[in-house]
Specification:
Residues 234-254 are annotated as: Disordered. One of its GO terms (molecular function) is ATP binding. Strand 7, helix 6 (178-190) and strand 8 (198-202) form a beta-alpha-beta unit. 31% of the residues lie in helices and 27% in strands. The protein has 254 residues and is an alpha/beta fold. 44% of the residues are buried. The protein starts with a strand and ends with a helix. The structure holds adenosine-5'-diphosphate and magnesium ion. Magnesium ion binds at residues 44-45, 202. Adenosine-5'-diphosphate binds next to strand 2 and helix 1.
Length: 254
Amino acid sequence: MSSFVLEASGLVKSFGQTHALAGVDLRVRTGESLAIMGASGSGKTTLLHCLAGIVRPDAGSVSFQSGAGRVEVTGLGERERSRLRREAFGFVFQQGLLIPELTAVENVALALMLNGMPRARAEEYGRGWLAALGLAGMEDRRIGQLSGGQAQRVAIARAQVTGAAVVFADEPTGALDSATSAEVMRALLDSTTGQGRTLVVVTHDADVAGRCSRIVDMRDGRIVGERVPARAGAGAGATAAPAATAPASAEAGA
Ligand SMILES: Nc1ncnc2c1ncn2[C@@H]1O[C@H](COP(=O)(O)OP(=O)(O)O)[C@@H](O)[C@H]1O
Ligand SMILES: [Mg+2]
């Protein structure tokens, strides 16, 4: 099995006259935390979306190494890509995308229920992840009754509960103060690379990127450099994660 969970080559994506990606080659190693940095408009989000099968590039390919073999993400149809995203990937965005009318545990459980797991079991897994992320006692609060950092940890729990092989985070700390940002980043690393999973994080925050194991720099739709931060790996492994991760959908009804 390849040690690269994702391999992208020759990615090109334009929006009208804007060349968001102008030829990107990138290999993401299994279990690494990769930060994608660059100025606003440099193509970070577009790259993340291509890697995750959200956006189809105009040219180039992305492949994903799953337990079952290599999947050519760019060759999949809309439905198959949607299924891949639900089952193999987790997503954390700057803010929002949690459902405000639902409680913390319902938001997390929803990710499993979409994969066919019955509610009671999904909520049990959800509670396990919330506790692991330091949110015990807050499971039944609605999102609006949580602080920004707490809500972001609910989003991390939701991204993780399905056992996602890769978590994609786009400016996950962009709306948080620096202390909360450090705490959220620690939770994100512990629940991904701390468990042997892979994290790809888009950020323009040097502190956030500095906690990752590798940084690539983008400019004008290209990768222009690659670095290993001085304090690579710091922050991983500090908190416990639940012993059991929810199974992928194939077993979800069992
Ligand atoms: N859906 C879209 N429609 C039109 N232009 C877009 C779209 N998405 C991104 N772009 C443009 O592509 C370029 C790269 O955008 P993006 O990948 O979002 O950069 P970043 O995340 O680094 O800020 C920018 O010029 C942006 O305006
Ligand atoms: Mg962006």
